[in-house]
Amino acid sequence: MEPGPVTRHVRPESMLCGATLGAMTTRARTASGIVIGLCLVFVIAGTVLLAPRSSASEDTNPAAPPSPSASPVPNPSQGSPSQVGMPGVPVGTTLATTLLATLPVKPALTMAGYNRTGEFGTAWLDEDRNGCDTRNDILRRDLTGATGSGICKILTGLLVSPYTGQTIHFVRGEKTSSLVQIDHLVALGDAWETGAQSLTQQQRLRLANDPLELMAVDGRSNDQKSDKDASEWLPSNASFDCVYVARQISVKVTYSLWVTRAEHDAMAKVLSHCGAITGTASSFAG
What we know:
The protein is built from eleven helices and five strands, in the order ααααααββββααβααα. Strand 2 (153-160) and strand 3 (167-171) form a beta hairpin. The strands form two sheets. Strands 1-2-3 form a three-stranded antiparallel β-sheet, with helices on one face. A two-stranded antiparallel sheet has the order 4-5. By secondary structure, the chain is of the alpha+beta class. Helices cover 36% and strands 10% of the residues. It has a domain at 91-106 and 119-271.
């Protein structure tokens, strides 16, 4: 944009001084030095009074910060109703003993009215929408040398059950598939008694199908465990206890569950022999 014409303004004090000098008689001009001095005072004072005011904040802070009463724009990814767990707790890098200390210790709720399918969905769903049901996803992850039909159905593979150390040759079939089962590390019945009743249906479905919560094991151990917590059942393979308990704690932190006093004490006893074992983060919950 081109600049417009410059408008010159005659200051009122200059007009006053000119009129004063013109009206002076010859005799009065002998005191001209005094008058001129007064005029100069008027001119200087007018310059100061009429000068445009500037703000120091405009020069030094062109983008002033919002006032303290302004509210930040909410981030929809933070604190959404679908999220569970403890915000700011990095489960995957935090010691299991520290995570255990964050879990509330409360009595278990009643199992009255509990229904596995009604509360946690059928076994097994494709909750992660990858085209394969959860059982086949975990078999593919945990079996060695797995073979299959198509991209999903696992037919054979080798499992060393973490609960016993027993080696199982898995073959898919009506009479053989049950030799390898998928265990919920935090039994769903235990989860129901310790906080899952407060989760939404969608959150419970995710809990039941979260790979963090699941592990391929021998069927006999899974049947023996049933809905027991760590105070009632631990793997016969004692060398796996640390991983087992740390994973249970990770699940409970991730899904905002709690522990009973007996469960807490049993977990703490196991962890006292585990060294600096950390939790395991879930990429599935949220």
